[in-house]
Amino acid sequence: MATAPVPLTLLIAAPRGFCAGVDRAVRIVELALRRYGAPVYVRHEIVHNKHVVDSLRAQGAVFVAELDEVPDGVPVVFSAHGVPKSIPAMAEARGLDYLDATCPLVSKVHRQAERLVENGRHILFVGHAGHPEVIGTFGQVPEGRMTLIETAEDAEHIAPADPSNLAFLTQTTLSVDDTAQIIAILQRRFPAIFGPRVEDICYATSNRQAAVKEIAGRADFLLVIGSPKSSNSQRLVEVAERQGTRAKLIGSAQDIDLAWLDGVRTLGITAGASAPETLVRAVVDFLSSHFDVTEEQSEGVIERMVFKLPRGLEEAA
Asked: What confidence tens digit (pLDDT) does each residue in 172-204 have?
C-alpha cells in the first residue's frame, strides 16, 4: 500500500522576483533583437540570473566581458548594474549603437555621485567590492574621490583626509539592517557627513527583505531562488537566518536536496529581484510531486513601479 505524501505548507513571499529595473533591462534586450535582429551584443550579464541570460542567448543575444569583444557595426546593450563613464565613451568613439539598460535607480546614484564630487565632497560609498554596480558607480567620478566601505568595521576605522567635507552613498542591493548600522556609525563619527534625502537601497530590495522577515518566523526552512552572483538574493538568505530560520540559495528546482526538508512542515519560498516567476512555479511543481502541498501567498506590498524604455525602442515595443 502506497504511503500518503507528507503534508507541506508553502509560505510564498510577496513581493518576490523581478523588479521594474530587471524587467526593463530584459525587455531592452528583447526589443533590441526585434528592432535590429540577431546578434545583439550585451556587455556583461544583463542581470544576475543564468536562466534569464540563457533565454536571451537562445534568442540571439551574445554576452561578452568587455567592449573590445563587440564587432563593429552591431548594437550593444549595457547591463542593468550600470557601467563606468568610460564605456559609453568608448562605444561612441567606435561608432557603435548602444542601449543603456542601467536601472534608473542606479543611474540616480550615479548622478548623485557626480553632483557631490562637483561640490567638492569626498564620497564614502557603502557596497561590496567587485560588484558591477560598485564598479560602475566608482567610474562616474575621478579616481580617488570615492572610498569603499564594506563593513561596520570599515566605517569605524576609515580616516578621511577632510572629515568635515564628506558624503555617503550606497549600493542599491544591500542589507537594509547592515546598511543602517554602517550609516549610523558614519553619522556618529562624522556629524557633518551629507547623505541622500531618500535612501539609495532600492524599493525592491527593501520590499523583498521585509517580505522574508514577515514569513521567516513562521517557516521551518526557507528557499531563496536566485543566483550566487546576485547581491539582493544573497541578502535574502541572510535576512532569514537572522530571523532564526535556516535558508538556502538555489538557482532552480534542480538544486533542491530533499534531505534539507526532513522534518520540515512549513517552507518559505521567495525569489531575488532578477529571478523570473517561472522559476518559482517550477519549484512549487517539484515540491508538489513529492509532498502534499498547500500554498499560502503572503500579503505584501504591491509594486506598481514601471520604468520607461530608452528612446528608439518605443516602436519596437
From this structure: 999 999 999 999 999 999 999 999 977 788 999
Task: Look up the domain containing 276 and give its range.
Answer: 7-18+203-297
Q: Is residue 210 part of a domain?
A: yes
| Across 211-223, average pLDDT | 97
Phi, psi of 224 (to 5 degrees): -110, 120
Q: List the grid coordinates of 298.
A: 503572503
- Model confidence at 300, pLDDT cuts 50, 70, 90, reads confident
- Catalytic site residue 118? no
75 and 40 in contact (C-beta within 8 Å)? yes
In a domain, 277, yes or no: yes
Given the residues 92, 118, 133, 156, select the one marked as catalytic.
Answer: 133
214 found inside a domain: yes
Q: How many other CB atoms sit within 10 Å of the CB of residue 219? A: 24
**Co-location of 67 and 112 in the same domain:** no
